[in-house]
Input
Amino acid sequence: MKNFHLLWILTAFLLWSCAEKDNTQPSEEIKINSLTASENPVKAWDTAVITVEATGDNLQYRWEANHGNFRGGGKQIRYAAGECCVGLNTITCTVSNSSGKVSDTIMIRVTSYFDPKNK
Amino acid sequence: MLKLNAFLISSSLLFFIIADKTSAQCCSSGNPFISDAEHPALQSQVLTSSLTYRYGHSSQYFSGDSRFSDLPFKETSYSNYADFQVGYGITNWLTVQAGIGYFFNKTLTTSGLEPYKGFGLGDAELYLKFNAYTNPEKRFSISPSLGVKFPIGVFDQEADHVQLPITVQPSSGSYKYTGNVFILKGIGRKMAFAAFLAYEYSQLIESDNFYYKYGDQWIGAVYFNFQAWKRLGADIQFRNEYRAKSTREHNEIVDATGYNVIFFTPQLTWAFKHNWYLSAYSDIPIYKYYNGIQMSFGYSFSVRLTKKIDFIALKAYQKSKNYDVLLRQ
Output
């Protein structure tokens, strides 16, 4: 039974230490030239197309946002956010290859569905 | 019993260790509230373990207390969820209960578009329940408890290098601290009345690019239990769930968050031999109020299987069996 408890603690330690860690280093071979949005500000539930232009070989693109949703992938992505995401939101694009990664952010303001200016 | 206590303590430590930093995003509420009739703290050396399956479905947007149909799309959200809980009465006044949830899927579909689908471990929880007062003759008990929820599941799940929406992330991303009290009063031999009041505080989620705090939550419920037959019990529950608005960067209040919902939850429980119990219940919202425009609670259906072991009764039974064997000899 004592060994069983040790096994639990060891399992926990292994789970923690084996958790995926981001070891990718910044790369000087990749350059993000631009990160633009088709619309800014954008009304809640409307879509903005966000495009990244980057130089480098065999590039992969990763997208994340603190608020809102994405559709698609790669160099161009469609971004939309509901009413609960009204405000100034941060969209981060990370471009990477075997040499490392580079990130850039764009701020998009989402306005309320009820905003009189949207009518 | 010492070995079992040690097992439970080491299991609890497991939850602390693997609850690592989360990279956090917003708006997901994590594990659904398991709404079957809450039980008071257990007696000493009583172990209960239960497995719950829950299907939840939502498809209506609400603004205030009215359905909002003005959006140019149709969205449906549904999930298949399982929850495992184990509780043990360490003493007659202290019970430890731990649980963990898993989403087989958390899906958001929008008309004409590919669905979003998340899955994985939800949040883990650990409670200490106390038998503050119990009067077996009057069938009255008061059981306060304190608990913590750990966001051990992922909160930044991706598909093809694109982060999935918060609403389909399996974990809430936030540590939550809860306090609640359960009061039970028997009425006659076959009926009981119970009340439950809970408060939940969510810790701020703060990382490099994310700052978010869920609003505080209050839950109040009243239950009426009727033992229809020896093995069949019925519960009727009315429950009010109130959540305050969330806060984001620069302590800005997120207007389209927070709600006040009243549920009606009917439940049937069948007691099998050897302390096995099977419950089925459904959460049906009968009143909804949402700030701003939000996807509202739809309905859910749950099935729960519970096994109870009373170690003191088991020892007494084994002793009497041995005594009978001795007598026959």
